[in-house]
């Protein structure tokens, strides 16, 4: 690596963006934490927070190398293990104007939040130690290769010409599909369909969504890896799509129940942000409005269907990240235009239908590695550590059984909606799960239901 | 002596309390309760989940009155707790056999009269006068 000119402006923006993306993981902890019941608030938040520690180390030790070091089309090499040779000079493959360590850290923040997104599907029932093992294996065996395919030097999807500006396929589609697989493999919560499983702190949900939105400017606009016009375009598109999706979601809420809900507004904004992620640097702001609108329509519909099914994707990670990520990746192939970003590519509407084929291949590849990888990892974790908490632990809450702490000291499970003396809540939409259901706990565990 | 138990809307509680104090009923006990009556169920929506809250939050007020205070007490509650909508609550009146004040051992009516009853009643009437003039 020869010394080349490091741009002060570009470096400053990428470092700030890295910090912004880190804040998204904290925002996610609040977003997910607010959506669960009080007895699981800490456990759910910790599923995001622990990724800050675990993947923060994994990325330096090997993750960055597997994802971005020169290697095969399928996986990066090992030469940057331990950040060896990842220095203060730019690596012209990724950006000629920022220190490679800035690139490495920016990408590291993506690697941290992606597996944390999955946790929303398996909250309130997964053993914490099983989740930790899953997190580490998933980041290494699914995220790092997929990031290499799409963004790494010589990655096969990059060579093919797949467009993914900031991680629609790498981050959201992969997390969403893995969430769906994990929710199926863990099975529903014991109380799913029998008790009211509703958010315990909606202000937390709004706070988390706000932090996600704020951090997403770093996620998307930072993905320009420079403080330039494309970053500004991505910034504009990010805000516009989130706003359009929020409005769409609110309108759909009104159609459904004649009221605009706060949880819906938060969810809508996040869905719009997911949808625009792959497209942010390639489309016009008007296209961003359409992307936000379409993604919100898809996710809102999917959530209505999901909540009437037996599928306990508890916080609708597949509906919000999987489907909106998929829609965003495909819509990038529709709306991309060099009129918005001369350095980008043309999509369907700009007269290049071939881009749609490439986007479809990228989506299919991301779905495949995520599904296969997640199945393999969960089978392994189930055979070694065991996936689920015992029924008793699940009913009393994972904050106590997994962490020995309570989010709200001394409140106990009686504060849970549907359990408190006066609530007597009836869930009208989710069908009951047959009782007794087979226990997915380890065979050796004495806590299995008879 | 009568035990008067009333269930009222929590949002009417400040008015009910003021009306009771003005009527000279100054010894009262409150509880937060949940009740089911003729009211419509409360519907809440969270993403795809619809909740029907069957029970409504209410306040239960209990007080024991000597005979001359029973009707003023009932009038005070009726005038302050009523909104005209379903769910305004009920008043129950039951006879009481004995009352003993623990501090002094006084019995029945002597035990019922709060030490500062007149003071509290006067303050409540003055407060209402100021509020009414505004």
Instruction: Give the C-level CATH assignment of chain A.
Output: Mainly Alpha
Query: Could you say what the CATH topology of chain B is called?
Result: Alpha-Beta Plaits
Domain tally of chain B: 1
Largest sheet of chain B: 4 strands, antiparallel
Number of helices of chain A: 14
Helix content of chain A: 55-70%
> What is the correct CATH architecture of chain B?
2-Layer Sandwich
Count structural domains of chain A: 1
Q: How many E strands of chain A?
A: 1
Structural class of chain B comes to alpha+beta
Shape of chain B: elongated
- Rg of chain B over CA atoms, rounded to whole Å, is 18 Å
How do the strands of the widest beta sheet of chain B line up side by side?
Answer: 2-5-1-6
CATH architecture of chain A: Orthogonal Bundle
Strand content of chain A: under 5%
Instruction: Indicate the CATH class of chain B.
Output: Alpha Beta
Going by CATH, the homologous superfamily of chain A would be Ammonium transporter AmtB like domains
Which spans of chain A have pLDDT < 50 for at least 5 consecutive residues? 429-433, 435-450
As a percent range, the share of helical residues of chain B equals 25-40%
Task: Please outline the helices and strands.
The complex is a heterodimer of chains A (450) and B (134).
Chain A: H1 8-35, H2 41-68, H3 100-118, H4 128-151, H5 156-160, H6 168-186, H7 202-221, H8 229-257, H9 262-276, H10 285-307, H11 317-335, H12 354-384, H13 391-396, H14 398-403, E1 425-427
Chain B: E1 2-8, H1 13-22, E2 29-35, E3 42-46, E4 49-53, E5 56-65, H2 67-81, E6 90-95, H3 108-112, H4 117-133
